[in-house]
Give the backbone structure.
Amino acid sequence: MSGGLDSQLAVRVLQRAGAYVEGVAFATPFFASDAAEKAAGALGVKLHVVDFTDDELALLRGPPHGFGGAMNPCIDCHVAMIARAGELMAGLGFDFVATGEVLGQRPMSQNRQSLGIVEKCSGMKGRLVRPLSAALLEPTVPELEGLIDRGALLDISGRGRERQIALAAEFGIVDYPSPAGGCKLTEAGFCRRLKDLMDHEGLGDRRLVELLSTGRRFRLPGGSGVALGRDRLENATLRKAAEDASSGWLTVQPVNAPGPTALVPAAVKDDMRLVLGLVCAYSRSDRLSGNVKLALRRFGDGGGEAVMEVPRPYDRDLYKEYQIC
Ligand code: SF4
């Protein structure tokens, strides 16, 4: 369950076909489960939220069926989700897994071939029901065994939304997010950050993945990655991450002027002058008559604090070449 309209309709159609339904939602730093939680609450179905981060990170290293338009490994992501749902199905004593997929709705992941690949590669052959398009697909085991009424399943296909919107009105579903969006792996800007992380630190440290949306991003010539907070909330998030990490992460922030917190998880000595200049350039130091004072704090074993002074002004344009986004 994504929580989108199609997944909500799938629940109601299945219930109308005679099934008892519980929801499964997946959560990662790239997409959250809140819309599914809200939808499950509105529909009155129990929801299982599965931490899918390690599965998704493994796919990002080389999805067997490739990426979509950005870094979205949609076919393999569906395969892995259905496989995980299948494990839950077996463990909880359910008979089948269902999705709100609609035949032909998405060019890469919901054409007839992709739907077949997902069913086969997830190990759920015959046990994967798409209630919104089932009448256009081969009958599944629960339909053949009469566990659900195939006649109550639908024949929706294509990208149009008219049938779904009419059905929503019929079922009294009024609250659903727009069909597009929700997964950061489809966003070009986010994917630049992700690619940079993969090329440098790699995907082994989940904390770095979770911070990917926070701050402006820079990659300095010596290899240091810098996240620079854009507002108070991001500054606090970066400081908290450094405190929690306890592993040599460094923060830099101005002491005598308002300005951003920079988080440098693996600072390279040769980059330090640039790190200090960067924080200075984004600080509001125009009213200072003297230097900008910067507090450097290294966390974890061998950590410590120091205050350094940097002359202002620093021109932000100097750092454009290092900015990822
Ligand atoms: S859009 Fe994101 S969550 Fe959805 S299938 Fe593709 S990679 Fe997975």
Q: What stands out?
A: Residues 4 and 178 are 7 Å apart (CA to CA). The first helix runs from residue 5 to 16. The first strand starts at residue 23 and ends at 27. The chain has eleven helices and ten strands.
